[in-house]
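Duplicate of #3305? Posting structure anyway:
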């Protein structure tokens, strides 16, 4: 039941994205096809510590920078 008039518009890595109101950060990462355990997130210019992800709700105009953590060997 997606209602286009109630979508939250935000930027993810410089690209316009939208999501449903009240979407929490872990849900947003899943919608983007990302594994939350393998990314670091900058939320509106600040590194967002993982302990706050579940309480961080996407809001109109938010800016996310998401970096995938790559293991090497």
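Output from current build:
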């Amino acid at each position: 039941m997606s209602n286009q008039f109630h979508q939250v518009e935000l930027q993810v890595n410089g690209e316009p994205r939208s999501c449903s109101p009240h979407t929490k950060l872990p849900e947003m990462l899943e919608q983007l096809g990302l594994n939350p355990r393998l990314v670091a997130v900058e939320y509106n210019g600040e590194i967002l510590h993982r302990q706050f992800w579940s309480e961080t709700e996407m809001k109109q105009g938010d800016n996310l920078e998401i970096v995938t953590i790559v293991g090497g060997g």
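Confirmed duplicate; merging threads. Helices lie at 25-31. The CA atoms of residues 38 and 69 lie 5 Å apart.
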